[in-house]
Amino acid sequence: MTLLVTGGAGFIGSNFVLDWLAQHDEAVVNLDKLTYAGNPENLATLQGDGRHVFVRGDIGDYGLVLDLLKQYQIRAVVNFAAESHVDRSIHGPEDFIQTNVLGSFRLLEAIRAYWGGLDEAGKSGFRLLHVSTDEVYGSLEKIDPPFAETNQYQPNSPYSASKAASDHLVRAYHHTYGLPVLTTNCSNNYGPYHFPEKLIPLCIQNALAGKPLPIYGDGQQIRDWLYVKDHCSAIRRVLAAGKVGEVYNVGGWNEKANLDVVNVLCAILDELQARADGKSYAEQITYVTDRPGHDRRYAIDAGKLERELGWKPAESFETGIRKTVEWYLANQDWVQNVMSGEYQSWLDKNYAERQA
Ligand code: NAD
Ligand code: TYD
């Protein structure tokens, strides 16, 4: 029995592979294109572990995916592979359409071909778990209830629109061809191996480097935050016990305004690695031009996952964010390595034109 994980060298995918192999003996084939966001260093502790096979390749490569499915007699696919950063999707949507829409479509086609050739037991036991985001539901007003699985899709960014398209394709392959799929829509993750273009790791690094902590607009945009290892446990639970064809929202019940998140980070850093001048890192907070079309609020109702599959997050925001800051302080070599090269040109592109 083998699992095919796509995008398993990225932030959530690599946490998932590491946690999976820490808890199961079932092998993992890890298919990742190694874009700027994919980093084999995340998986360094698996070197020499025969249960992990890394393959550099594209989910849109139908022939490669079909070969892997057959060669390793895959019994489930967990699809993390995607372009994932909203700001990049605003600067250049094309890659998002390529991977999130066309890539997902070709992945589905390869899976359909493989699955169609399995015997009845193989067919009914097979699963495709598609990992998606709460951003497909659009933006909430302050008084709105959190997103339920039944909410209408109203994606507002090229990123969320491309993820919505892939969710729809996954749904259609179940309804039309009977493919045994599961979809999870999760809120904002944070934790180890988070690429430092996203708010939390970016602010930790900028704080330590004495740089501005860029807050888009008024900083009152709200996100629900989930510690990445809780997302991984939710995926394991849905894969094991989720009802075929169903969608499960995953969230941490942790709604926070961006400014509050950054202030919490500063307070933990003040305690663990105080600034040389004794002032708070919060002094580095700088308001910059807002993101175009910035969604105001996301919030997740994860009640279905708790009621039907008994899943709950293990970490509160307070415990998870402290672990995260500690991880970044202890893993500065990892950060320095991912911040070389392409990352610097992204910083120039995204922040140079934002007025402070
Ligand atoms: P990430 O950008 O850190 O990692 C994506 C990985 O996919 C990288 O390793 C990259 O090399 C790989 N990849 C990209 N295009 C590929 C392709 N065509 N073929 C094969 N591999 C490819 O993203 P992440 O934050 O780990 O997110 C993983 C998944 O979870 C995504 O589908 C994302 O939409 C979803 N998600 C993310 C969050 C979040 O807060 N980060 C929240 C909810 C859902
Ligand atoms: P991000 O980590 O990019 O995740 P997402 O856009 O998928 O929610 O951003 C989280 C929030 O932080 C979002 O409201 C945008 C905001 N943000 C900033 O205020 N400054 C920044 O430099 C970045 C990267 C994000």
Protein model, in words:
- This protein has 356 residues and is α/β, with parallel strands linked by helices.
- The protein has a domain at 2-193 and 228-253 and 294-315: Rossmann fold (3-Layer(aba) Sandwich).
- It is 44% helix and 17% strand.
- The chain contains 13 helices and twelve strands.
- The protein has a seven-stranded parallel beta sheet with strand order 3-2-1-4-5-6-10, sandwiched between helices. Strands 7-9-11 form a three-stranded mixed beta sheet. The chain has a two-stranded parallel sheet with strand order 8-12.
- Strand 1, helix 1 and strand 2 form a beta-alpha-beta unit.
- The chain is globular.
- The chain starts with a strand and ends in a 5-residue tail after the last helix.
- The model has no long low-confidence stretch (mean pLDDT 97).
What's the structural blueprint in terms of helices and strands?
Blueprint: E1 2-6, H1 11-23, E2 27-32, E3 52-56, H2 62-71, E4 74-79, H3 86-91, H4 94-116, H5 120-125, E5 127-133, H6 158-177, E6 181-186, E7 188-190, H7 199-208, E8 213-216, E9 222-227, H8 228-241, E10 247-250, E11 255-257, H9 258-272, E12 285-288, H10 303-309, H11 317-330, H12 332-338, H13 342-351
Parallel strand pairs: 1-2, 1-4, 2-3, 4-5, 5-6, 6-10, 7-9, 8-12
Antiparallel strand pairs: 9-11
CATH H-level name of the domain at 2-193 and 228-253 and 294-315... which superfamily?
NAD(P)-binding Rossmann-like Domain
Number of separate strands: 12
Structural class: alpha/beta
Largest β sheet strand count, sense and barrel closure: 7 strands, parallel
Low-confidence stretches: none
Strand order of the largest sheet: 3-2-1-4-5-6-10
**Portion in beta strands:** 15-25%
The CATH topology of the domain at 2-193 and 228-253 and 294-315 turns out to be Rossmann fold
* SSE run: EHEEHEHHHEHEEHEEHEEHEHHHH
Per CATH, the class of the domain at 2-193 and 228-253 and 294-315 reads Alpha Beta
Give the terminus-to-terminus CA distance: 53 Å
Q: What's the architecture of the domain at 2-193 and 228-253 and 294-315, going by CATH?
A: 3-Layer(aba) Sandwich
Radius of gyration: 20 Å
Mean of the pLDDT scores? Answer: 97
Q: Ions, cofactors, ligands: which are bound?
A: nicotinamide-adenine-dinucleotide, thymidine-5'-diphosphate
